[in-house]
Design brief:
It comes from Formimonas warabiya. This protein is of the alpha+beta class. It has 11 helices and 13 strands. The chain starts with a helix and ends with a strand.
């Protein structure tokens, strides 16, 4: 009997030991994966900021409007990439606030200049001087990041320790050289005056209250459940949902940051989801996986985006334009009320073209702007509005839209899609008084259509 019991206990100990070792190996693999994610984000950030320094200098000296549109558009993209990579680093919110805001403003300022240039209004002396100031700032930031990169290469960095230190000492001075260096960069950027420009994220618009942020405050557990239910996960994979800290999204919406990862790291990707603390609305979702070679086309990817959005709280949305970035299709959707396309109420969905999985989502435009509107009836008929167009424009299509003005006001317009020679345009005629409110040039690329 004693030998039998001893055998049972020995077997149990062996099984327990094997299970414990398996759990240890799994935890180690998770830590290595997370370390690699942070390391990649850091080096990508260094590259993004260095590219921004080069692109801003090229834009200042460019004498070609067409070339400058490309350069300014590239600045916008690189600034967005830099923000995404910066957001993945386990640094305190206080450490990153001003740097994130600076990158947002740099990107949006470049975008507004690109729009002006495409409309036949190249940079004037004041705008060039502003871009020069931005170049000086981004170049200084690039130099600081390169120095920090050299220090990381020389001394190494444990991102897990940085993350733990940031959480414990949030809003306090960090003892880690990495967090401290980022704080110094943040303080240097904070010394510069606020950038003012007629763009969608300028400071006077950032102070708006989110109009669609409805509902009661939710808990961490509710946020995790909503994040898990929202994202497009692979079948037959066991995922772990964990908190990734509290933060504040663009447009000053407090969020819970949720991290979703496979229990076995090698079986899948890490997904980050931001859930608003008020109402539990998904503000952002991003899948970190690498995208393989495309196996589906733009039309199929668009259908995937539409099908995904139809299952969310964001209803009555129609696609307005799309852009292919390598093998990812980014689709913008606007809210449709009756027969009116409401452009301010915007969400974006990203679809991987290797398998049709939704890998990105953003709803800040919608949450900031969507509300119950009393849309006016048009005072001009479609025919009357069409007569306001220049006769050289060949009209292909028309529809009613609500568009935002640079003042923050919204105006009901007829949108005319037309062409002149080889160029395509969107022209907006005020449906109440016939004013030509806006002209956008459509730039067709292999990846999709830009509106400038």
């Amino acid at each position: 009997m004693r030998n039998w019991l001893t055998g049972i206990l020995a077997a149990a100990l062996i099984v327990s030991g094997v299970w414990g070792f398996s759990q240890y190996r799994m935890n180690q693999a998770n830590r290595i994966l997370l370390e690699n994610d942070h390391q990649r984000s850091f080096y990508n950030l260094v590259d993004n900021v260095e590219n921004l320094s080069v692109l801003t200098s090229k834009s200042i000296v460019s004498g070609s409007p067409q070339q400058n549109i490309r350069l300014l558009s590239d600045i916008w993209w690189q600034a967005n990439f830099a923000q995404d990579n910066l957001a993945q680093l386990p640094l305190s919110h206080v450490t990153l606030t001003r740097t994130q805001k600076f990158l947002t403003q740099l990107g949006d300022y470049a975008y507004s200049l690109a729009k002006n240039t495409a409309d036949g209004r190249p940079m004037n002396a004041k705008q060039t001087a502003t871009l020069q100031d931005l170049h000086n700032q981004i170049s200084r930031l690039s130099g600081d990041l390169i120095e920090l990169q050299n220090e990381v290469v020389k001394n190494g960095v444990n991102w897990r320790e940085v993350k733990n230190t940031s959480k414990e000492k949030l809003d306090k001075e960090s003892t880690g050289y990495l967090d401290t260096n980022f704080q110094k960069m943040n303080e240097q950027i904070n010394q510069y005056p606020t950038l003012i420009y007629d763009g969608p994220f300028s400071d006077h618009l950032e102070t708006k209250n989110p109009k669609a942020l409805t509902g009661k405050a939710i808990t961490w557990e509710e946020a995790k459940k909503r994040a898990r239910d929202f994202v497009d996960l692979r079948d037959r994979i066991d995922y772990v949902v964990a908190d990734n800290g509290k933060s504040t999204a663009k447009a000053s919406i407090p969020v819970y940051s949720v991290r979703i990862s496979p229990r076995v790291p090698s079986l899948g990707e890490v997904i980050y989801v931001d859930v608003s603390q008020k109402g539990g609305h998904i503000t952002m979702a991003m899948n970190s996986r690498s995208i393989g070679a495309a196996t589906i086309g733009i039309d199929q990817a668009l259908e995937k985006a539409k099908a995904f959005l139809a299952k969310t709280e964001y209803q009555s949305m129609v696609p307005t334009y799309s852009l292919r970035q390598e093998n990812t299709l980014i689709v913008s959707f606007a809210y449709k009320e009756n027969d009116v396309i409401v452009y301010p109420d915007l969400v974006k969905v990203s679809v991987a073209m290797d398998n049709g999985q939704v890998t990105g989502f953003e709803s800040l435009g919608y949450l900031m702007q969507h509300h119950q509107r009393n849309l006016p009836e048009p005072k001009l008929t479609l025919e009357e509005a069409r007569k306001k167009l220049n006769k050289v424009i060949k009209v292909d299509s028309e529809r009613l839209t609500l568009i935002p003005l640079e003042t923050g006001e919204e105006v009901l317009c007829y949108e005319f899609k037309g062409s002149y020679k080889s160029d395509n345009f969107l022209i907006y005629i005020n449906a109440l008084d016939g004013t030509e409110e806006q002209i956008l040039q459509l730039l067709h690329t292999p990846g999709g259509t830009w509106t400038m």
